[in-house]
Amino acid sequence: MAEVQVTQPELPNIIAFLAEKFQGTPFGYFLHQWENVIFSLVVAGIISLVAYLGCRRLKMVPGKLQNALEAVFGGLDEFVCGILGSRGRKYTPFIGTLFIYVLLINLFGLIPFMKSSTSSLSMTLGLALCVFVYVQYTAFKELGFLGYMDHLLGQPRGATAFSVIIPIFMFLLHVMGELIRPISLSLRLRSNIWGDDMLLAVLAGFGLQGLPLLFFNMLIVLLGAVVQAVVFSLLSTIYFALVLPHEEEHA
């Protein structure tokens, strides 16, 4: 019996077109396998270029590009410090870059013949693992090994410290939570962007009759791309807040 292959609807993009053009060649295979990575590297290159052009000649009276970058950085710094406090400023470059990167990748798929590589689980899982590793490094650095173990045990004090069951239960619960976070973080982003891409691809297949729905859903997808970037960055910031020692407020 002949196998029936069901292909998922997908908007055409330049890399997929080139891969089909060079089908059967090593170059075509390379493009097919590394399609999402290529688009993500293009976005990274655009961000690097804009940052270089905006920061190479800093002036006391900023130009339009420098002024725009300072406004973006200031907003991101307020966002991070609003959750982590003043100590969060050293995490602003990481979380801010993460937000801009995810946002631009999400929006990149709305450009004709481009693709949002965050519709791939391998891409979103890679980003989530970066957050996971940095959060664990921060926990060990700020709390120390014994302090982090105390955190995982639920900081048992008094009679609770002498009950073996509760600290072990809290330890297992915290470890499972830490391991689940990169999975949930990556699946949430990937599923939403993938669903938006599939919706646009289906509506585009209707031709001219689907243009009104396509235009309306483009606005929804645009809003969704921004929301998902905010959610990804917000959850990442909260993960840092959970492992950082609490600041004592002094009157």
Care to give the gist of this entry?
By secondary structure, the protein is mainly alpha-helical.
What does this structure look like?
- This protein has 251 residues and is mainly alpha-helical.
- It has one domain (14-243).
- The protein is 73% helix and 0% strand.
- The protein has helices at residues 14-21, 26-33, 35-55, 64-84, 92-108, 121-152, 159-162, 165-204, 211-243.
- Helix 4 packs across helix 5 and helix 6 (121-152) packs antiparallel against helix 8.
- The longest helix has 40 residues, at 165-204.
- The model is unreliable at 1-6 (pLDDT under 50).
Largest sheet: none
Helix content: over 70%
Radius of gyration: 23 Å
| Strand percentage | under 5%
